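User: Predict the structure for this protein chain, please.
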Amino acid sequence: MLDQFAEYVTNLDISFFYFLNIQLKNPLFDFLMPLITQLGTQFFWLIFCGLLYIFGGEKARNAAFLCLIALISGYFFTELLKILIARPRPGEILSDISLLTDMSGYAFPSGHSIAAFSAFTILGIKYEHIYLFLFFAGIVAFSRIYLGVHYPLDVLGGSLLGIIFALIVLRMEGKIIRTKNKIINKYIN
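Assistant: Here is the predicted structure, written as structure tokens:
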């Protein structure tokens, strides 16, 4: 029974992958998705949070710091899960896909989705525009499927984990900010 359910979910995941990767294929998305997917990279978020920290006020500095904590935690957790689960990427198993970017490593969970959802969730809550920020994170997650490097369940799992990491960090916000301020006061001031 469990094997049949797992097979059903896997087949549904593959069917949905083909729909998003092949059926929605168009020149506009072929141009936009490689750009949008960059909003899920660690490099983008390090630069963004660095600029927010340097040029923002106290609220922006705290939001940037919280994002970095969530991103770093999420990155290490993602890498551990990828090794433990070892799910091959679609391009390693499926034929006739549209692969629009390089792929390496394992598929589950999507690191881009975890990064986008953790940072955008924190920013959305701190700046009170959660739906707008979650929309941006969702577009990043969609881009990973469209580009051919993740299945829908990879990005769904990454998205949920990103939100969880954001909520954990926000729950610990007071302690995190106090610790940050102590370190800054001790070593910088």
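Residues 148 and 177 are 39 Å apart (CA to CA).
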